[in-house]
TrEMBL record:
Residues 392-401 have a biased composition (Basic and acidic residues). Residues 425-435 have a biased composition (Basic residues). Belongs to the Tdpoz family. It holds the Pfam family BACK_BPM_SPOP. Pathway: Protein modification; protein ubiquitination. Residues 380-435 are annotated as: Disordered. May act as a substrate-specific adapter of an E3 ubiquitin-protein ligase complex (CUL3-RBX1-BTB) which mediates the ubiquitination and subsequent proteasomal degradation of target proteins. Residues 196-262 form the BTB domain. This is BTB/POZ and MATH domain-containing protein 4-like. InterPro entries: BACK_BPM_SPOP (IPR056423), BPM1-6 (IPR045005), BPM_C (IPR034090), BTB/POZ_dom (IPR000210), MATH/TRAF_dom (IPR002083), SKP1/BTB/POZ_sf (IPR011333), TRAF-like (IPR008974). Residues 26-160 form the MATH domain. CDD domains: BACK_AtBPM-like, BTB_POZ_BPM_plant, MATH. It comes from Pyrus ussuriensis x Pyrus communis.
Length: 435
């Protein structure tokens, strides 16, 4: 008899894999401070804040202290900090602050966590309002005699890298898919005019296009070209716009992008008197007429970037006229937060004469802004702008306002038409003295 042991065979499954990845999500913000000399003297520990910007799912802001943050320094240094401006707990991040040298040498002052080893790892911000930065960022006397300060202007660039970690169990190898280039192909179709079947005559300038493309993008063109009740039309005369605007309109319809134009890339160069006649405003009107919501948003974004105390009233009127609701909401909030200055602008006179209903909406927004502040947030009351010529301490103005809210709401507008000043006081009366 032959005896022995039989070997058992086991089949092995294909091994799986995973990896734990820690990396940073980076974003930058450029902060320009104009009128540095006027900002001095606001007091130690008081700052000028940039607009909030978003990186890694959190909001951030740059705080600049013209008189320094530390009382012990006796305003000998300016301070710069990056603050967590949204809710968050133990947010880990890397930071870089750059004071831009505006002279020919370009020797910027840089404080950076990036591209170097950190002994204790990234900086941790515990909660909203936590900051990282330098109390002694730059000695003031040296700053004011350096090329960092030019035309009373400082430029500070900030980069934030939020640390994120995740398990990546996807395949370790991937194939990159390039961005869509369909817009480039359709743009060539428009440029080459190949297969065009309709011609637009705009003030004597002719544009060749394709009915199917136009109809697919715009409900107005669809109705114009494919309404069974209408005769086929190969030549269309356009009388309500100019060639530059119509060319930009066709470019968007074919490519889904704004045309490259200096007026759109640097709309801030427009003077207030020409704002309503600018390319962005006219394209906003075209987006409303032809039913192009993405073009509307693009124009809203351009106009939003140039919004100021002097221009907000005109931009608000444009937004209301062409149903640009996002832009209108931003304008109302901005005007409410800067009400006194806006009411003294030429644009506000235009608003009074041409858009009286918008004044009621602005009042409601003012009331809403002040109501939000009643939660205890430490910021300037909107109504407080009317006390003592714009006193920022917001003493008891809010309480008095709500006790007699109806009378206060009415008094904002009336003095502008019967000799009052923009703060709601009659010019014949002496302004009361500061406390």
């Amino acid at each position: 008899m032959i005896s022995g042991r039989q070997k058992s065979s086991r089949s092995l499954a294909s091994p799986s894999s995973s990896r734990f990845v820690t990396e940073t999500v980076n974003g930058s913000h450029n902060f320009v401070i104009k009128g540095y000399s006027l900002a001095k003297g606001i007091g130690v520990g008081k700052h000028i804040a940039s607009e909030n910007f978003t990186v890694g799912g959190f909001q951030w802001a740059i705080y600049f202290y013209p008189d320094g943050k530390n009382p012990e320094d006796n305003s000998a240094y300016v301070s710069v900090f990056i603050a967590l401006a949204s809710e968050g707990t133990d947010v880990r991040a890397l930071f870089e602050l750059t004071l831009v040298d505006q002279g020919p040498n370009g020797k910027h002052k840089v404080h950076s966590h990036f591209d170097r080893s950190l002994e204790s790892g990234p900086y941790t911000l515990k909660y909203r309002g936590s900051m990282w930065g330098y109390k002694r960022f730059f000695r003031r006397t040296l700053l004011e005699s350096s090329s960092f300060l030019k035309d009373d202007c400082l430029k500070i660039n900030c980069t934030v890298g939020v640390v994120v970690s995740a398990i990546d169990s996807s395949r370790l190898h991937s194939i990159h898919v390039p961005d869509s280039d369909i817009g480039d192909h359709f743009g060539m179709l428009l440029e080459n005019e190949e297969g065009s079947d309709v011609t637009f005559n705009v003030c004597g300038e002719r544009f060749h296009a394709h009915k199917l493309v136009l109809a697919a993008r715009s409900p107005l063109f669809e109705k114009e070209f494919f309404d069974g009740m209408k005769e086929e039309n190969h030549d269309v005369v356009v009388t309500d716009t100019d060639p530059k605007v119509f060319k930009a309109l066709l470019h968007f319809i074919y490519t889904d992008n704004l045309i490259e134009d200096e007026e759109l890339s640097d709309a801030s160069s427009l003077c207030m008197s020409s704002l309503s006649d600018g390319l962005a405003a006219k394209l906003l009107a075209a987006s409303d007429k032809y039913g192009l919501p993405r073009l509307r948003l693009m124009c809203e974004s351009v106009l939003c970037k140039i919004m100021s105390v002097n221009s907000v009233a005109i931009i608000l009127a444009l937004a209301d006229r062409y149903r640009a609701m996002d832009l209108k909401s931003v304008c109302l909030k901005f005007a409410a937060e800067n009400l006194v200055a806006v009411m003294e602008s030429d644009g506000f006179e235009y608003l009074k004469e041409n858009c009286p209903l918008l004044q009621s909406e602005l009042l409601k927004t003012v009331a809403g802004c002040d109501e939000e502040l009643s939660g205890g947030e430490k910021t300037r009351s909107v109504w407080g702008q009317f006390s003592d010529g714009g006193d920022t301490n917001d003493r008891s103005v809010r309480q008095r306002t709500w006790e007699n809210g109806g009378e206060r709401s009415q008094s904002i507008w009336v003095p502008l038409s019967d000799g009052g000043d923009a703060r709601g006081r009659s010019r014949s009366r002496s302004p009361r003295q500061d406390d």
